[in-house]
Write a structure and sequence with these properties.
Keywords: Aminotransferase, Pyridoxal phosphate, Signal, Transferase. InterPro entries: Aminotrans_V_dom, PyrdxlP-dep_Trfase, PyrdxlP-dep_Trfase_major, PyrdxlP-dep_Trfase_small, TAT_signal. This protein has 14 helices and 13 strands. It has helices at residues 9-18, 34-39, 60-75, 79-82, 84-100, 113-123, 140-153, 169-177, 202-211, 231-234, 299-310, 315-334, 363-372, 397-409; strands spanning 48-49, 107-110, 131-135, 156-160, 184-190, 215-219, 238-242, 254-258, 340-341, 354-357, 375-376, 378-380, 386-389. The protein folds into 2 domains: 87-310, Type I PLP-dependent aspartate aminotransferase-like (Major domain) (Aspartate Aminotransferase, domain 2, 3-Layer(aba) Sandwich), CATH 3.40.640; 315-409, Aspartate Aminotransferase, domain 1, CATH 3.90.1150.10. It is globular, with a radius of gyration of 22 Å. It has 410 residues and is of the alpha/beta class. Helix 3 (60-75) packs antiparallel against helix 11 and helix 6 (113-123) runs parallel beside helix 7 (140-153). Strands 2-8-7-6-5-3-4 form a 7-stranded mixed sheet, with helices on both faces. Strands 9-10-13-12 form a 4-stranded antiparallel sheet, with helices on one face.
């Protein structure tokens, strides 16, 4: 492709140099590796950030790529130049599919987990009386969408309370299995609860669902990006993920996986001309779920830049580092007098979301005091008020020590 008259080769080379990613290595994932890792991020050095379950900060290189590509797009939004985006989308689907051990034909590029969840909610063919199993920890994008559909179509929406102090995967499995009836058509779960960090035994639930021809959709907003995932081995029918949480990528990026042999059972929620299609036949793949009108095309390059940073780490090392960071922080908080931690802490069912109540204390004031010390957290409504911490690889031992000191000062 020749240079645009508005974009010189020199300009593009300068932008590429600015955006050159730091290659993360497993050694940088430890608490001791914080300085090098934090220097690669846009996050204010003064902030100790514990809210990856909502939005994680991204890398300087990712922001630079997004800004550079957005400028290039706006300088030349011609159809001819935009022909590069379908190819970029193909490459990105293939990269994500490889990370998840599935095929590119099973990946749709959407705007976030909420959009992916809604596609799964709206796309299944159901009739009055069909049972849908949810939990009371499902994200509102799933819960509220199902509530609306159930009210309109007479569906049996069955909500299973999450046993927040479950001791084992079996406890979690049993709570779902007990809700299954002959009329059950779908089970929708959050892989990891954004409320307590409880992780459901998805593979075991998938075997149950498959045996009874029940569709299993898993909201992976809280696992995509840090957990080592093998969706083929898990056996789910569909799975969602966002790029702005644990992946530490740009806003408004996400993916929806739909098992190839079941795609005919899940209709898209919108049809139009193919957006990033390179071949009309791709409308017979998961790409049919990503049609939603004009997109932020430069986002494709930003997500790819995020993977460029993370590829040197490896999923297994990332998974181990995040679990260790969360486990050590959970133990440190447990040692603070007057705390009430949710969840048993059992390794197999506990992820990097730590929710803690402080009986008898003003939790709102306590959280405000933490923010005065530039410690960013999230509020929780559990037991009338709690604080949620979601540590990630950019958090250090010093960050955790600052939290503990803040909680003890109270």
């Amino acid at each position: 492709m020749t240079d645009s008259p508005l974009i010189s080769r020199r300009t593009l080379m300068q932008a590429a140099a600015i955006a050159a990613p730091m290659a993360l290595t497993p050694g940088m994932l430890s608490a001791a590796g914080k300085p090098a890792l934090r220097d690669a991020m846009l996050l204010d050095p003064a902030i100790r950030y514990f809210n990856a379950a909502n939005i994680a900060p991204t890398f300087r290189s990712v922001a630079a790529v997004h800004e550079s590509e957005t400028r290039a797009f706006q300088m030349d939004p011609s159809v001819e130049r935009r022909a590069l985006y379908p190819k970029a989308a193909d490459a990105l689907r293939a990269r994500i599919a490889k990370r998840l051990n599935v095929t590119a034909q099973e990946i749709a590029l959407v705007r976030n987990s909420s959009e992916a969840n809604t596609v799964a909610v709206r796309g299944l063919a159901l009739k009055a009386g069909d049972r849908i199993i949810l939990t009371d920890h499902n994200h509102p994008s799933t819960w509220d969408s199902w509530k609306l559909r159930a009210e309109r179509e007479g569906l049996d929406l069955h909500v299973v309370p999450v046993p927040v102090d479950a001791k084992s995967s079996q406890d979690l499995f049993d709570s779902i299995a007990a809700a299954v009836t002959p009329n059950t058509k779908a089970i929708f779960l959050s892989h990891m609860s954004n409320i307590t960090g409880i992780i459901y035994p998805v593979a075991e639930i998938a075997k149950l669902a498959k045996a009874k021809n029940i569709w299993l959709h898993v909201d992976g907003a809280q696992t995509f990006g840090w957990m080592q995932l093998d969706l083929a081995a898990l056996g789910v029918d569909s799975y969602s993920g966002s790029t702005h949480k644990w992946l530490m990528g740009p806003l408004e990026g996400g993916m929806l996986y739909v098992k190839q042999e079941r795609q005919a059972e899940l209709q898209p929620i919108m049809m139009s001309h193919g957006y990033w299609l390179t071949d009309p036949a791709n409308l017979n793949t998961a790409q049919k779920y990503e049609i939603s009108g004009q997109r932020d095309d430069p986002k494709l390059m930003a997500v790819a830049a995020t993977l460029d940073v993370l590829d040197g780490v490896g999923d297994a090392a990332m998974d181990q580092a995040v679990r260790q960071r969360a486990a050590s922080m959970r133990q440190a908080i447990a040692d603070v007098s007057g705390t009430r931690l949710f969840g048993s802490g059992a390794a197999a069912i506990t992820g990097p979301v730590i929710t803690v109540a402080f009986p008898g204390k003003d939790v709102t004031a306590l959280r405000a005091n933490l923010w005065q010390a530039k410690i960013a957290t999230a509020a929780s409504k559990l037991e009338g008020g709690a604080i949620r911490f979601s540590p990630h690889i950019y958090n250090s031992d010093d960050d955790v020590a600052a939290v503990i000191e803040g909680l003890r000062r109270g």
